[in-house]
Design goal:
Layout (H helix, E strand, L loop, with lengths): L4 H14 L3 H6 L4 E3 L2 H6 L21 E3 L2 E5 L5 E4 L4 H10 L7 E4 L4 E4 L9 E5 L4 E5 L15 H15 L4 E3 L2 E3 L6 E3 L2 E14 L2 E13 L5 H9 L12 H11 L3 E4 L7 E8 L8 E2 L3 E2 H8 L11 E5 L7 E3 L4 E3 L19 H14 L6 H5 L3 E2 L6 E6 L22 E7 L6 H18 L9 E6 L4 H14 L4 E7 L3 H14 L2
Parallel strand pairs: 23-24, 23-25
Antiparallel strand pairs: 1-22, 2-22, 3-13, 3-21, 4-6, 5-6, 7-8, 9-10, 11-12, 12-13, 14-15, 14-20, 15-18, 16-17, 18-19
Length: 512
């Protein structure tokens, strides 16, 4: 790399002190030539044809783009052993301390074991569990990756990546493949919350292994009681709530809560229900139910006396059982925690953060990861340089210039010696010739203004759409190709779009 690690740190400190806007670098991304560190030192400097040299990155240049990659390393003698269903056996070895805990680790339900200990001289290992009276034997035919190499293969990199993700699951909330901080303060976006999460991936680059961190912003439902969410977020207290809602409020609520997951107080907030977006036809006092007579008495018998009996219940069904519809009092429901908002065509996309904000959010995310203190990371000697992102030197290409003459024409336009004009129509028309001549005259006038040289008489063809349309098109284009035609001007007078598609298919794909 043309900038050393020390210098990169200095530049990073300079960046934090001056707060140079990252948006300036973003504006140049469209015209950047990014080079890898090894190729940068040997690649010749690019020079424009006009003689104006490009801005070249030198060793003392500050022109560095910081990427969302962080250099990392791990034990060079790390060896991987693959075998299915090994989890229980390896865990028994660890718990019984047959092998020291720092020598062996396992991950991913035991489908792979990695170690800094070479087992070749200790195999097979036999471990007897006395209370069951049988032996278990561990046999490893050979390591899948030779130890002592500087870089491992892609499959081993995936294993280390999975280990890192397993470690982070103890520190962050994982939704899908995205990690979110437990204590992050959410930004409000209408009725929803916006949380910034990050994804991790390990990559093998020319500079060695790196940890790629990418941030994403996701909409979540707030972890609120359903009634509080309706009043504070959806209705925004537009009506002074006195224990009941208007019909238009129910319509508004139903449209926004369809397919939303809730938990209930009577299930200790453990059982999940899916809202249908509809409400009960009658109030709880008039909703019949076996044994207790009505829904109001039913919940009173359970120890939940409804404070707002004038609210209609939401219709919902238990997760995985859409046929079993139930009526749930709004005041006893709570939005399920860590529930993402389902996007549809009416949902506005989450606004993208500024480059400067995203830059700092990536640095914040990687620094919150407890790589250096976690025991599993210590066992494979994982080190992540999370002080600054990797820097890539770049050069900015000057904007291309189109040189015009005094009259506004191109200085050296291409000369066309062989040209053709094709008139493609569905049928013969009485004014077809006038249309053709008008188009040709306008085209020649425009070419003359730009000082383009065209043949005085182009090859003219008329093609009418009939049963033999494909053969006619191929025949005409074949003749023009044989004549080495340089330019074809085609006038289509067709309402049928299939004629255009056919001509384009034959002209582009078959004749280029």
């Amino acid at each position: 790399m043309s900038v050393t690690k020390d210098k990169a740190k200095e530049q990073f400190k300079k960046y934090e002190g001056i707060h140079k806007p990252m948006d300036e670098q973003t504006n140049t991304l469209a015209a950047l030539v990014l080079t890898t560190p090894e190729k940068q030192s040997t690649a010749p400097k690019s020079v424009q044809a006009s003689g104006t040299a490009l801005q070249q990155v030198e060793d003392d240049s500050d022109d560095v783009i910081y990427t969302n990659h962080f250099p990392c390393s791990f034990s060079l003698d790390l060896t991987f052993y693959h075998r299915e269903k090994r989890r229980q056996f390896v865990s028994d070895i660890l718990f019984a301390k047959t092998i020291h805990a720092t020598a062996v680790c396992w991950y991913d339900e035991g489908s792979c074991m990695y170690s800094t200990t070479n087992f070749k001289d200790k195999l097979p290992i036999i471990y007897e569990k006395e209370e069951h009276g049988y032996q278990r034997r561990l046999t490893i035919n050979g390591p899948s990756t030779t130890s002592g190499t500087k870089y491992l293969d892609q499959s081993s990199i995936r294993i280390i990546e999975t280990l890192i993700k397993q470690v982070l699951k103890q520190q962050f909330k994982v939704v899908g493949s995205v990690f979110y901080r437990w204590d992050e303060e959410a930004d409000q976006d209408g009725p929803y919350n916006l949380l910034t999460g990050f994804k991790l991936a390990m990559c093998l680059t020319e500079s060695g292994p790196t940890l790629n961190v990418d941030t994403t912003i996701t909409r979540f439902y707030p972890h609120l009681d359903l009634l509080a969410f309706i009043l504070e977020r959806l209705l925004k207290n537009e009506s002074s709530f006195r224990g009941s809602l208007l019909d238009r409020h129910y319509d508004q609520i139903g449209n926004r809560l369809k397919d939303v997951e809730v938990t209930t107080a009577q299930s200790n907030y453990e059982k999940i229900y899916i809202l249908t977006g509809y409400f009960s036809d009658q109030l709880p006092e008039k909703t019949p139910i076996k044994e207790q007579g009505n829904l109001l008495n039913y919940y009173k018998h359970l120890g939940f006396e409804l404070r707002y009996p004038q609210l209609y219940c939401v219709k919902a069904y238990p997760l995985g059982n859409p046929q079993n519809l139930v009526d749930l009092p709004i005041e006893l429901c709570c939005l399920r925690e860590w529930q993402q908002v389902k996007e549809d065509e009416n949902t506005k996309p989450v606004p993208a953060p500024t480059v400067d904000k995203r830059y700092h959010s990536i640095l914040t995310a990687i620094r919150y990861c407890n790589f250096h203190d976690d025991e599993l990371c210590k066992e494979i000697q994982l080190e992540v340089n999370c002080q600054t992102m990797m820097g890539i030197p770049y050069e900015t290409l000057s904007k291309r210039q189109i040189i015009l003459g005094r009259q506004g024409a191109f200085t050296n336009p291409v000369s066309i010696d062989n040209m053709a004009f094709i008139y493609l129509a569905e049928r013969q028309q009485p004014n077809a010739r006038q249309i053709q001549e008008k188009l040709l005259n306008n085209f020649y006038d425009a070419a003359n203004r730009q000082r383009m040289t065209l043949p005085e008489y182009p090859n003219e063809y008329e093609i009418f759409a009939d049963r033999n349309l494909e053969d006619k098109v191929r025949s005409v284009l074949s003749k023009l190709k044989h004549k080495q035609c340089q330019f074809i001007l085609c006038l289509e007078n067709c309402r049928n779009s299939k004629i255009h598609e056919l001509f384009k298919q034959i002209a582009c794909n078959e004749f280029g």
